[in-house]
Amino acid sequence: MADLKNQAVPIKPEQILDIIIRRRWIIIIPLSIFLTLGLIYALVTPRTYESSTTILIQPQKVPTDYVQSIVTTDTAQRINTISQQILSRTNLEKIIDEFQLYQGKEIRYNEDKFNDMRKRVTVTQQSAGKQEGTAAFSVSFKGDKPETVMNVANRLATFFMDENLKAREVQAVGTSEFLESELEKIQKKLEDREAQLASYRATYMGGLPDELETNLRTLDRLQLQYSDALKALRDTQNAIALLQSQISRLKEIEQSGSGTIQTDGSISGRSNLSITQQQHESEKRQLDDLLLKYTEKHPEVIKLTKSVAKLEEKIAKEAEEKKNQAPEGTAEKFAPISNNNVLAQHEFNLRQLENDVVNIQRNILQIQETMKVYQKRVEDTPKREQELQSIQRDYNNIRDSYNSLLARRLEAELAVNMEKKQKGEQFRIIDYARLPEKPISPDVRKLFMFSVAIGLGISGGIIFLLEFLNPVIRREEQIEIEIGLPILASIPPLGRPGEKTQKRIELILFSLVSMYASAVLLGFALLNLKGIEKTVEFVKPYINI
Description:
With 545 residues, the chain is of the alpha+beta class. The chain folds into 3 domains: 2-45 and 442-544, no CATH class; 49-184 and 415-431, Alpha-Beta Plaits (2-Layer Sandwich), CATH 3.30.70; 210-408, Helix Hairpins, CATH 1.10.287. Helices cover 69% and strands 6% of the residues. The protein has 15 helices and 4 strands. Strands 2-3-1-4 form a 4-stranded antiparallel beta sheet. The longest helix is centred in the last third of the chain and has 80 residues, at 341-420. The two termini are 69 Å apart. Residues 1-8, 258-272 and 328-339 have low confidence and may be disordered.
């Protein structure tokens, strides 16, 4: 018996149907009430409409291989920036004044109007799919008047397109102007460096690094000239010493009379060669020595060659004079000279040689000064090279920067022209905002489901309390399980007077309530399918009838 009491009795579908039939009023009345309240709320609540415009982002029409756009801002970031500009106080004030959005509404402060407008504008970016970036976006606006909502959405889309073109052109022009100003600054620096480099080259002309080889060759040539000058100085000094000794002997002979000055310029008992011949022999030996070292075009070789030629002419002239004097008698050859012509000639030659010594010494000094200059240039070459490299490096860096900026400025000018001709990236409207037919608020479908859920939930709760908390035996098996007695016979319920009439009236009332609930359901269906405005227009003729 105890096992029968503890055994759970499953609920059968016919039992659930029996409960629904018995508690039909508890189900239909709350459901009708909440459906009615939901329908009234849908009709009374202010309606909110939404209209949106879809804008496609077109890439630039000129290939990037030919013209590179200088507007490198990410598309999503640029859309956000334009959104902030469009939702600015100034722009929203223009839209509010143009469409009279808050006329007749109890909003006193302008700041509240602007905040409400910002909440009603929505910008939704759409992905390009597999490609990165944004391929399109939509601009939506919410309001209580369908036509106004449509017009405002289209106006916002127009603002987006205009602001995009303006922003791209402003950015391109600004970049071009910035590059132009920077190019002018760096051009001035480049000109200063060029002037500095030219001034440095002009100041140290001859001592620059690229002239080092020339300076070294010149220095070698000066060294040879210096050596030749020293040798010429020694030879001239030797000739002077020789002349001085001869002049001294001539003077001694003239004073003592122990010797005879011959007509050919020689001294009897001394040498068979005259002074001119001795000088000729000396310079001839010097010329032979120089020809062993230098060519015939060397300055010293040319000089000695001319001097030897003059001496040869002089010797030839003296020989001619001797020949003309020979017939008169050979005794005259060794006749003493009464005048001092030979001594005077020797003194004249001595003065010439002394002048040559002065000129050679002066030439040696000039060569030494010139050598000092070239030695200074060669010694300063590393220093000049370092200084010139520093100036040249700065010049090259500035020149490279200038060339780079010049190329960028040309690219910027092309980009500006491209943006002005609207060949760059553009926004194009592919779906204009349309007149909204159904409001987005209140949502009739959600409101219907919410009303049905509340009505059935309350009904189900009441039925649960009545059925399961009320200890009433309604099924035969409950007697056997709960009381533990077997059922011997079943007696049907006895009818009461007026029960049929009562059931008939109850059925009529239930039918009326069910029809009312069906009408409410039909109203929800019309609101969901046609919208509130068209539903009201559809029902209005029947109401007037």
